[in-house]
Design goal:
Helix content is 73%, strand content 0%. With 356 residues, the protein is mainly α.
């Protein structure tokens, strides 16, 4: 284990030339740099955030949903059947014709009755609008609060106004309490999303969301371990800025305020295009790739960090293209169905995109 730890935390990979882990030890009282051990603090914080979410959805979001006439759905549960339940959970949720006929003979049921059982069983697992509204309201509240906190913090930080400050003195950049709180809260939030996936109603995008959250946790943890937290705060704040409008638009959709939904998604799309296609590449990626090259110089983990950000930008371009293509078709053809597809694309983006 010691040999593996020494190999994994090789200073030649993680740190710039002529810098060692010993150099990053606290040099004076009150002076602290990011340490990998700090990341463990995110786990109890994630449990706390998860508990707050449960209370928030039950007592705050649920009341707001009811006031907007988004009531919990009462669904009829299917007739218990061990054979069909085993097929549903282990083999397929939507059996083909030959499977239906086989089950029909095995149970001595009519084929239409077997079909109806599977249809009702699928509907039973679908989250209702009330549950979706509460989840979106929780995410909206978190994104709004963390974006407000992050923006206020960055407003007072020199690297917001001159990104070269992300690299002056690197990696000997002091970790301040507000910066630590910002990073740990973001990291704990995504850990809490991983935790909540196993208690929420299981959805068809379970695997995609699980990968999404793991990727986000990995990127945040990596930037913290390498003390690239200054530029990391810029990335997190940029992504939270558009996710606020995405969740607000979802809430309007679930509450059946279609005009408000359309307006909010227009705001989301503009914010998305500006932050992901203009600000991110010409401001954030510019400093991580070019300004850091001149001030610090390249090293192995620097290359990895930039490759990850480049992949992130490729995802930005892909989703922007899909969103723009559907939006243009909706405008040119004027079909309401196209607008619905546009909303579906935004929802798919929220599912697949890794934030940070």
């Amino acid at each position: 284990m010691a040999a593996f730890s020494a190999w994994f935390w090789n200073e030649k990979f993680w740190l710039p030339y002529n810098v060692t882990w010993a150099d990053l030890a606290d040099q004076a009282p009150g002076v602290q740099y990011p340490k990998v051990g700090h990341l463990l603090a995110a786990f109890p914080l994630a449990v706390g955030i998860f508990a707050v979410r449960m209370l928030f959805e039950r007592f705050v979001a649920s009341s707001c949903a009811r006031s907007l006439h988004v009531h919990p759905e009462v669904r009829q549960r299917v007739q218990p059947n061990a054979v069909l339940e085993k097929v549903f959970t282990s083999i397929t949720k939507n059996p083909e014709s030959h499977h239906l006929h086989g089950l029909s003979k095995q149970l001595d049921w009519e084929v239409c009755k077997v079909q109806r059982w599977f249809r009702q069983r699928r509907n039973q697992d679908k989250p209702g609008l009330h549950a979706k509204f509460c989840e979106s309201m929780w995410r909206f509240t978190f994104y709004f609060c963390i974006f407000t906190y992050g923006f206020q913090f960055l407003w007072q930080s020199p690297w917001l106004w001159d990104t070269r400050h992300c690299w002056y003195g690197y990696p000997f950049q002091v970790l301040t309490p507000p910066l630590y709180r910002y990073y740990m809260t973001e990291l704990a939030f995504y850990w809490s999303l991983i935790l909540s996936q196993f208690t929420d109603i299981r959805r068809k995008d379970f695997l995609a969301m699980f990968v999404h959250h793991l990727a986000t946790v990995g990127l945040i943890s990596f930037s913290y371990a390498t003390n690239m937290v200054r530029v990391g705060t810029l990335v997190m704040c940029l992504h939270d800025a558009s996710d606020i409008w995405l969740e607000a638009g979802k809430m309007a959709k679930y509450a059946k305020y279609q005009r408000l939904c359309d307006v909010l998604f227009m705001v989301f799309s503009v914010t998305f295009f500006v932050t992901r296609l203009i600000v991110f590449p010409f401001w954030v990626f510019n400093t991580t790739m070019f300004e850091s090259w001149l001030i610090v110089g390249p090293f192995p983990s620097w290359w990895l960090f930039n490759v990850l950000l480049l992949v992130l930008q490729v995802l930005h371009i892909m989703w922007s293209y899909l969103i723009a293509r559907i939006a243009i078709k909706a405008i040119m053809k004027g079909k309401p169905a196209r607008l619905q597809r546009l909303y579906s694309s935004f929802s798919l983006y929220a599912t697949m995109y890794a934030v940070t």
